[in-house]
Specification:
Growth Hormone, Chain: A; about 0% strand; globular; cell membrane; Fucose permease
């Protein structure tokens, strides 16, 4: 009764399944504002890949280690993060994520001075540990902050802000890292020995600049969150089920029997891998197809990609209010597959524009797969860990770009390597097609 009184005092009532009777707007806005923060970090990786390739003289497979360090941390930390949420609260997990994010940004200072690829990967890994906490907590928390029937809509609204963070990350990278350098590979190709080393170190110092601004925002968000009362949004044990929360083994057994949940996790793996690899190599594709543009000019294509992604989210949200979620996503995925086929086969700048167009169809994918998959978990005692497994599927962002990098190195064609994300999109389209058929079958049964 005491906790209920506290909840009422702040204007919401928590229901037994963990959802709230209404959405606390201020708290929902705070959680939603966390979303663009991980978008900025993710998009800066696309800038770093181009920068590191030239400065450290890497092949395409090696540059993909940036994404491997980034998304590998998601895979390793998602379960520990879910256990921390279970034992503490979503608020505590979010604050933990912000602290790790701050530490990771801080590590860019020694990394830029040491000027070694491995040290930068350590800094990126530390940032990703923080982001794993943030995504594991915020994705589920956003969906729980209000009535259950609006969970998908809430998560899509929060996720709509991610492209704004992505755009900000690219803009910071475009002007603070690339600046007026021009085409870095062209500038450095005739440099050797001490001259090349000195110029490379100077370029690496520029990587510090965007992270200074991000640090200021992170500290501010941490302070705001620390002083704001937040709902628990956790399922309440009934008198019949007063046992302690389920163990990890019980959770694994429960989820292993849920075939739709497993298919959703698989779809998320391929989706994140596809999205990451398209965004990782769009700048490289533009530079390969048009040798007259600078690195800064090429990065502008990523600003277009994130703007289109944002627009795609808005259009999808409107369509999902009128039509079946799985139907909308089946159509979006099929059209995205066609766009990537054009990227892979048309040997001029049209391929780059098709890659940009693909981002429009990316719009609703991640949050919809997440919420749709989480919704298959009927026993809400398993929600936190189930959400962590969906976040762990982000490891696709570590695996698929590495595969595309290898295909590019082996074939000698960055453009041909886009067949890898194309295949991934075919798999995602197939997933939504069969989910839509299942939805239709359920509707028919309900009518009968």
């Amino acid at each position: 009764m005491e906790s209920t009184a506290v909840e009422k005092k702040h204007g919401w009532i928590q229901l037994s399944d963990g959802y709230l009777d209404k959405t606390p707007i201020f708290q929902f806005v705070i959680v939603s504002l966390i979303f663009p923060l991980w978008g900025a970090a993710a998009s800066l990786n696309d800038i770093l890949i181009t920068q590191f390739k030239t400065v450290f003289q890497l092949n395409d497979a090696s540059t993909a280690f940036v994404q491997s360090a980034f998304y590998g941390a998601y895979f390793l930390i998602a379960i520990p993060a879910s256990l921390i949420i279970k034992k503490n609260s979503y608020k505590f997990a979010i604050m933990t994520g912000l602290v790790f994010y701050i530490v990771g940004c801080g590590l860019f200072f020694p990394a830029s001075n040491m000027a070694t690829y491995s040290m930068f990967l350590v800094a990126i890994f530390a940032i990703a540990i923080g982001l794993s906490f943030l995504e594991t907590s915020c994705d589920t928390y956003s969906s729980m902050l209000g009535p259950k029937k609006q969970a998908n809509i809430r998560l899509n609204i929060s996720q709509t802000l991610v492209p704004l963070g992505d755009m900000m990350g690219i803009i910071l990278g475009k002007y603070l890292i690339f600046g007026s350098v021009g085409n870095l590979s062209e500038t450095m190709k005739n440099m050797h020995g001490a001259q090349r080393l000195a110029y490379g170190e100077k370029m690496l110092q520029l990587t510090l600049e965007p992270y200074k601004y991000i640090l200021l925002v992170l500290v501010l968000m941490l302070a705001i969150l620390a002083f704001t009362p937040m709902p628990k949004s956790k399922a309440i044990s009934t008198s019949k089920d007063k046992k302690s929360s389920p163990s990890l083994k019980e959770t694994l057994v429960y989820l292993a029997k849920n075939s739709r949940f497993k298919k959703g996790v698989m779809a998320q793996f391929f989706y994140v891998g596809m999205q990451t690899t398209v965004w990782s190599f769009t700048i490289r594709l533009a530079l390969d197809l048009n040798h007259s543009i600078s690195d800064s000019d090429a990065s502008t294509f990523m600003i277009y990609s994130y703007a289109v992604w944002f627009f795609g989210k808005i259009v999808a949200n409107l369509l999902m209010n009128r039509f079946s979620v799985t139907k909308v996503l089946t159509v979006f995925s099929a059209l995205g597959t066609i766009a990537l086929l054009i990227t892979t086969t048309v040997t001029n700048m049209t391929a780059v524009y098709a890659a940009i167009a693909t981002s429009f169809f990316f719009g609703p994918e991640w949050p919809t797969i997440y919420a749709h998959t989480l919704d298959t978990v009927e026993d809400k005692r398993f929600t936190e860990t189930a959400g962590a497994f969906i976040v762990m599927a982000i490891v696709g962002g570590a695996v698929i770009p590495a595969i595309q990098g290898l295909v590019s190195d082996i074939s000698g064609s960055m453009q041909l390597s886009f067949i890898v994300p194309t295949i991934c999109y075919v798999i995602v389209t197939t997933y939504f097609y069969f989910e839509h058929r299942l939805d239709i079958s359920k509707q028919k049964l309900a009518i009968k």
